[in-house]
Amino acid sequence: MTQINYRPRRSCLYMPASNTRALEKARTLAADTIIFDLEDAVAPDAKEEARTNACAALQSGDYGKRELVVRINAMDTPWFAQDLEQACLSQADAVLVPKILCADDVVRISALMDKCDADRNSKLWAMIEMPLAILNLAEIAALGAQHRLTGFVMGFNDLAKEMHAEHDRAVFGPVMTQTVIAARAYGLTVIDSVYNDFNDPDGLEAECLEAKKLGFDGKSLIHPAQIEAANWCFAPHAHAIAEAKAIIAAFQDPVNAGKGVIVVDGKMTELLHLKQAKQLVATAQAIETLAQ
User: Taking the model in full, what pTM does it have?
Assistant: First the structure.
């Protein structure tokens, strides 16, 4: 079977970098991705301390196989340049930038990351939370993918504010679909917005399942109590893994050599289903590796 490289991002947990106890706690959590937050979760007078804490965490080597991302402050803030430089020098896996408006933003940030001598594996993620970003999704994805951009993260709290809209999930249905389509067209990861009520596990699970159905890779989270639900919802389940392995085995059978369409368990199965099956199995294997 062809190997498919895949990093699970079922659970992307924001941790306020101004809170050292939270950063220590994150070392033991089952989140696939830890996002050290320098933006919304940090008061203005704590920004510099938070940056220092985040850089120390990045360089500590204490977070195992978890993906480590820094959400820096927006381009129009006095903290942006230093946030970006220090995150790059500390070799964050990715830098998440809020308030992205257009493709030129991601090109400029990518160039600044190059100037900071960021490791070639350090990527750029963009928050999709502004009306202009929605209008420019295709351009942002297309041009960004030619540079360091590898992911979109939805931000419905800010988008609702900018739209003067109620924070009703139904309002964002078209935006979610547009964002997933733009991301998939250019090979980007796409992460759903946060669920604000961390005391409502049923509501969180419903949003996770909806996001998975729409094609999202995972959910951004605000509390460790949300990790288990996100990890379960976005992981391939046992029956799906079994079906995928059956499809792979059927196409590998010499009897089906060279065929583009075969019958597996009574269902017409095409090469596109084989590709999906390989991706699903690779996802399951990557999750298993993370847990080891």
Answer: 0.92
How many degrees, rounded to 5, is the angle at CA 282 between CA 278 and CA 288?
150
Cα–Cα distance, 255 to 219 (Å, whole number)? 42
The answer to whether residue 75 scores a pLDDT higher than 90 is: yes
Contact 72, 87 (CB under 8 A): yes
pLDDT score, position 117: 80
Distance CA 244, CA 231 (A): 20
Answer whether residue 119 shows pLDDT above 80.
Answer: yes
Q: What is the pLDDT of residues 215-250, one digit of tens each?
A: 999 999 999 999 999 999 999 989 989 999 999 999
Distances in Å between the alpha carbon of 15 and those of 139, 154, 210, 220, 274? 30, 17, 24, 11, 38
Supply 261's token pair: 């369409």
> Hey, is 155 helix, strand or coil?
coil
